[in-house]
Amino acid sequence: MIKLLVIHCVKNAKIQEMETELENVNRKLPFETPDGYFDGFEEKMMNRIHAEEVSAERHHVEQLNSHRHRVLRLAISGVAAVALLVIGIYTVIGYQNSVNAQAEQIIAATSDEDAYYDEVNDALDTEEIEEALAQLNFYE
After folding, report:
1. CA 108, 111, 112, 117: dihedral to nearest 10 degrees?
2. What is the tens place of the pLDDT at every residue in 48-86?
3. Which SS3 state, helix, strand or coil, does residue 11 take?
4. Are the beta carbons of 133 and 139 closer than 8 angstroms?
5. How far apart are CA 74 and CA 69, in angstroms?
6. Integer Cα distance of 63 and 87 in angstroms
7. For residues 43 and 47, what is the distance between their CA atoms, to the nearest angstrom?
8. pLDDT digits (tens, 9 = 90+) for 17-32
């Protein structure tokens, strides 16, 4: 118990010593704010906050516009691709129809010639054909 009392007394002595040292310390702060530093501070801060809000809003609008432009470009590209595809399909179909029409004309013309030769062949006997060829000296 005496030990505790001694420790307590020593601690009290140190505390008193520290208190006297603190009393001797100059309590004046080494730094001072300049005169007029806080004059208009609130107004300056509010202006700065407003400017940051406007800047953030402008940035947000720019991002939205950029996104809209990307979507619009993508949509235009898609429409152009579909249009080219449709034009290509119609071109191929038109070409095929043209080729088919030409083939039908050729077939029709050939059929007409075949019909003409069939009529001539039916009108002439084999003997008449042989006589005509003999007159032309065809077999010689």
Report:
1. 170
2. 999 998 888 998 888 888 888 999 999 999 999 999 999
3. helix
4. yes
5. 8
6. 36
7. 6
8. 787 777 777 767 777 8
